[in-house]
TrEMBL record:
Membrane-traversing stretches: none
InterPro entries referenced in this protein's UniProt entry, alphabetically: Auxin_biosynth/cation_transpt, CHP04046_FMN-dependent, FAD/NAD-bd_sf
UniProt KW keywords: Oxidoreductase
GO MF term (any one): flavin adenine dinucleotide binding
Domain of life, source organism: Bacteria
Gene3D superfamilies tied to this protein: FAD/NAD(P)-binding domain
Protein name from the UniProt record: MSMEG_0569 family flavin-dependent oxidoreductase
PANTHER family: FLAVIN-BINDING MONOOXYGENASE-LIKE PROTEIN (AFU_ORTHOLOGUE AFUA_4G09220), FLAVIN-CONTAINING MONOOXYGENASE
Length: 424
């Protein structure tokens, strides 16, 4: 698809589930628009997930506008190929005005209103712009990573594919959010020697008292709590996701059990110097805190069951199956341990420096209320905790996109020929 013109009432930047959900709803409202995607639609799902990737939330939580999960296993967990196929069916259902392989280099608010988008195929303008580009732009790699021996292969979570793609030898996985724990599990199940630097991420059980924990929490309204009802938006955004897995029908990720099975657990990685990795003295604390979070979630479910008078089976409290040994060595000789690869799983940093508009806080993060910024006609969709827990996930994209589509429809601006002449 090529440009039919150089100005559109609305331009959506990003061709993932957020961008195409917006497109679907704009088309429903007969609002002329264009969607621009740097790579291809659903690129992150296709190219930035490992081979064994699967959802950690049940399939029934997958819903795009007028396109809920359409398979026969609502309480299962789709693998990567199934997720992509489901999304491609959504795309095919309405054939969005999407241009793939186009880079938006800059977005600038114009003095007379509207926005100019500089692309590698020339400039465009729009009255309103929706930024559907997530906030996971640059992997967080610490400066001391440069001091790792050159022979050690380094990748971040988005570049990991499978154990066979890594050089032979042991692997150090850094970080225990969802990606770090699942990648460590993938390597562990493949028989690789795994060292895991354990951070403060919390964990949650897969099933409790006869149901998936996600089912209980959804019934309790947990996923519909607006961000402003939590401590602060910044604090909520900074929290790591609870680790659990949907692999093989879903199960807990218990790092203590991995340790019993031979995985080497360490505290948070602090630095690398002269071929030695040094870890913090916080392994026990991090494991205990993760278990405590899991216990609090279970207690809240117990309270809900009691209040509602629900007949549900009981379960004994979790008992730790492994404890870090006293005097655990906090240093690891990378050569002696045969570390051949390091996988960085400590998160991603946003980069919105290419957007010039009064819509950001002092850190450069979008300042908004449910995706609506102070810069008229500039919106964000798909950010973590844009409105609720589900905003950065498939679960609430349709709801958030509906809200913004209504705002866009109400704020439609007339064309301004005076600023089009210079770029037409």
């Amino acid at each position: 698809m090529t440009f039919a013109k150089r100005h559109y009432p609305v331009i959506v930047v990003g061709g993932g589930q957020a961008g195409l959900s917006t497109s679907y709803l704009l088309r429903q409202r007969n609002i002329d628009h264009l969607v621009l995607e740097k790579e291809q639609a659903f690129h992150a799902w296709k190219e930035q997930r490992w081979d064994s990737f699967c959802l950690v939330t049940p399939n029934w939580q997958c819903r795009l506008p007028d396109h809920p999960y359409d398979g026969d296993d609502p309480h299962g967990f789709m693998v990567k190929e199934d997720i992509v196929a489901w999304m491609e069916r959504f795309r095919a259902a309405f054939d969005p005005p999407l241009i793939e392989g186009i880079t938006v280099r800059a977005v600038r608010a114009l003095p007379v209103g509207g926005y100019r988008l500089d692309t590698d195929r020339g400039p465009l303008t729009a009255d309103q712009v929706v930024m559907a580009v997530s906030s996971y732009h640059r992997p967080k790699i610490p400066g001391y990573a440069r001091r790792l021996p050159a022979r050690i292969k380094q990748v971040d979570a988005s570049a990991y594919r499978n154990p066979e793609a890594l050089p032979e030898g042991a692997v150090l996985v850094v970080g225990t959010g969802q990606s770090g724990c699942q990648i460590a599990e993938d390597l562990h199940l493949a028989g690789r020697r795994v060292h895991l630097a354990v951070g403060p991420a919390p964990r949650v059980s897969r099933f409790y008292r006869g149901r998936d924990v996600v089912d209980w929490l959804d019934d309790m309204g947990h996923y519909r709590i607006p961000v402003q009802d939590h401590l602060t938006e910044e604090q909520v955004r900074a929290k790591a996701n609870h680790y659990v897995t949907g692999r093989d029908g879903g199960r807990d990720i218990d790092l203590r059990r991995f340790a019993l099975e031979g995985m080497r657990l360490h505290g948070r990685l602090e630095t690398v110097e002269a071929g030695q990795a040094r870890f913090g003295d916080d392994l026990g604390k991090n494991l205990d805190q993760a278990d405590a979070t899991n216990a609090r979630i279970k207690n809240s479910i117990d309270d809900y069951i009691a209040r509602q008078g629900i007949d549900a089976p009981t379960e004994p409290p979790y008992e730790p199956v492994w404890e870090p040994p006293r005097g655990l060595d906090r240093e690891l000789d990378l050569e002696a341990e045969g570390i051949a690869a390091v996988i960085w799983c400590i998160g991603y940093a946003p980069d919105f420096s290419w957007i010039e508009a009064p819509a950001f806080d002092a850190t450069g993060y979008p300042k908004h209320r449910r995706g609506v910024t102070a810069s008229p006609g500039l919106y964000f969709l798909g950010l973590p905790w844009l409105h609720t827990w589900g905003s950065g996930r498939i679960y609430a994209i349709a709801e958030d996109a509906e809200y913004l589509a209504n705002r866009i429809e109400a704020a439609r601006l007339p064309l301004r020929e005076q600023y089009l002449a210079g770029i037409a």
